[in-house]
Amino acid sequence: MTDEFERVEVRLPRHLVQWLRIYCKQVAMSPDQFLAYVLEWYREVWKLGFELALNVADEYKAKKSEKIKGLEEVLEEVMF
Questions:
Q1: Which are the contacts of 17, defined by CB distance < 8 A and separation ≥ 6?
Q2: What is the sign of the dihedral through the CA atoms of 62, 66, 71 and 73?
Q3: Is 5 within 8 Å of 33 (Cβ atoms)?
Q4: Which end of the chain has less neighbouring CB within 10 Å, N or C?
Q5: Helices then strands, each counted (H, E), the chain
Q6: Do the beta carbons of residue 23 and residue 34 sit within 8 Å?
Q7: Phi-psi category of 41—alpha, beta or left, where left has phi over 0 and alpha has psi -120 to 50?
Q8: How far apart are CA 6 and CA 30, in angstroms?
Q9: CA-to-CA distance for 50 and 68, rounded, in angstroms?
């Protein structure tokens, strides 16, 4: 995390706010620290999934390109 902060207002259902306050006292964190912690982990998991999807897409494109090259070679042999 960086040392730059911005304020964001979040509206939550009352039962979540009550739970958040109780839980944060138990783990000795402020609600904003806890939410930042959870969001940071969520962001890391999202990044892993996004990078994995990019890798899968690149592999798919590479395989598709190989198949197209193979078909082009077959067509050249047939036509000439």
A1: none
A2: positive
A3: no
A4: C
A5: 2, 0
A6: yes
A7: alpha
A8: 16
A9: 27
- For residue 22 the two structure tokens come to 């109780």
- Give CA–CA dist 36/10, Å, rounded: 12
pTM score, whole prediction: 0.59
Between CA 36 and CA 29 the distance in angstroms is 11
**Tokens 């190989």 sit at which residue?**
66
Q: What letter represents residue 25's amino acid? A: K
Query: Token digits for 55?
Result: 């890798």
Per this entry, what is the length of the chain?
80
CA atoms within 13 A on the CB side of 24: 16
In this structure, what token pair is assigned to residue 30?
Answer: 């402020």
Cα separation, 36 vs 2, whole angstroms: 11
Query: Token match 């494109």: residue?
Result: 61
